[in-house]
UniProtKB/TrEMBL annotation:
It comes from Paragemmobacter aquarius. It is found in: Membrane. The lineage of its organism: Bacteria, Pseudomonadati, Pseudomonadota, Alphaproteobacteria, Rhodobacterales. The chain crosses the membrane at residues 12-33, 45-67, 88-108, 135-151, 158-182, 202-219, 240-264, 291-312, 346-362, 368-387, 407-425, 431-448. GO terms for cellular component: membrane. It holds the Pfam family AA_permease. Keywords: Membrane, Transmembrane, Transmembrane helix. It is a multi-pass membrane protein. InterPro entries: AA-permease/SLC12A_dom, APC_superfamily. This is Amino acid permease. Its main location: membrane. One of its GO terms (biological process) is transmembrane transport. Residues 29-448 form the Amino acid permease/ SLC12A domain.
Amino acid sequence: MDGIASHGTKVGLARVLGPAHVWALGVGIVLVGEYMGWNFAVGKGGAYAALVACWFAGILYSCVAMIDSEVTSTVAAAGGQYTQAKHIVGPLMAFNVGLYLVFAYTMLEAGNAITLGYLMSVAADMTGATEALDQRPFIILAIVFLAWLNYRGVLATLNFNLVITAFAFCAILVLFVASAPWSADSPLAHAELMSGQAALPYGWLGVLAAMHFGLWFYLGIEGTTQAAEEVRSPARSLPFGTLAGIMTLLIAATLTWYICVGFLPWEYLGDGVNGAVAPLFSAAQMTGSNALIIVLGFGTLFATLASANGCINDASRAWFSMGRDHYLPQWFGAVHPTYRTPYRSIIFLVPIALIFALGAPLDQVITFSILSGLLGYTFMPINIILFRRKWPLDTIKRGYVHPFHPIPALVLLALCSMTYFAVFLGYGTQLIAMVSFYIVVSLWFHFWRYRFVKRADQFTMPWPKPKGY
């Protein structure tokens, strides 16, 4: 239930955000993927395979951004894809999509915290510390501080994200310019580092396997939909912020690949155990410039903080929406009477993120996040096709209409299928375990939790009856 103010009125989420905040939310969550994680794709298939995966994943997420922009500018409520599924497909799909969102963002938050702990240990080594730094206090402090920031209000949260995300993006541009690829004296060594086996060490099967981590360049851009109930003008802000965000990420991803494979051997770049944890920072170290090392060090730090901050925002909104609709205990659907935030959902998800951040390896955490996101992307083609069929373009007003329907939906479905196979090649056990988990919780929802859902209260949009009903 929403919070109740002292004068007895119902308290909802505050509409205080603009297009820049939507951009900061989407890009802020994702940009850490340029600073860490994507390089596992190099280990899967080599340098060229990672580039192919980067661009194919870019096509996948461009489809996601276009589809989300149309549906969310029309379904302007917290919960994002969960709320879309609730209105367009049905309760069981909505329940699963809500869990996909929560797990994708919470696992990504844990991955960010792990990377932040690594940065603190590197900083300690650079200062000449003789003993290995204990990373755990920094991991805990980061998650707790960002949860507190989210608790205190969404405007301050996303203003913070806007500043640090802009800095992290500019840091990539600075490193690219400093490497002077147009100059004969450029330190980039693509010809030497990408010759022979480095190009495609595992052939075209390696290209397919690289798709698994190619998603990490963009994973989370769909999180802009979680701001739908808190933007001042959903029809304008959501499409603008989301589409500007995917354009920003396409540029950042390509530049990141170009810089890193020009500075670092593919074996080191793709080694998730003894190799580059933060490849852009490692590339800056290769330049020998202290100024660049400092800029990229802060860029990596800010990217991890921005991503974790956005993940807490998005995971809590999805969890809050499910509680408000009785898909989960109604206790989670409360809004703070002063700060206008889903404070109980924010607090509840903190220990879950800490468990994974403190007890799981980075590649496993990334894989769990990717798998949950991938399951959510598979739902989107079904969602948009049903949305267009039930409510054709002339029946309800949309803030944005994505072009060439149904081609983006079909392309998205094909690329998702390809990525499932890529994940199965390297992490088949995790894929089977996660699918099994979602089957079990679906049975729990169907046979137990659904009895508490008030079906008549689910449809909050003032739409006409669907075509054919």
